[in-house]
Design brief:
The protein has one domain. 11% of the residues lie in helices and 36% in strands. The chain has a five-stranded antiparallel beta sheet, covered by helices on one side. The C terminus is likely disordered.
């Protein structure tokens, strides 16, 4: 028997070349809800502006790779931006 767990992070498309990575563990009115802004810079690459401390890397092959980086960030890393 498998149990489905709710997805914490979501990718929301704003335009053809821009997305937000959102953390659904925070209310939509909470500034911590938005984790990153992602923009396509070429057919093979996107650039990330991190709004919370997740990764130092700013270039990825795809938006899905950014979402994977957020989802796989170490659980001890304070995504909430609060004190450690």
């Amino acid at each position: 028997m498998s149990m489905m767990t709710p997805t914490r992070f979501e990718m929301r498309r704003l335009t053809e070349n821009e997305w937000l990575i959102l953390d659904d563990s925070f209310d939509r009115t909470d500034a911590r809800h938005t984790v990153a802004c992602v923009s396509r810079v070429s057919a093979e690459q996107v650039e990330v502006v991190w709004l919370r401390p997740v990764a130092e890397r700013i270039r990825y092959a795809s938006v899905a790779d950014v979402l994977e980086a957020v989802s796989s960030a170490p659980s001890h890393q304070p995504l909430a931006g609060g004190p450690t």
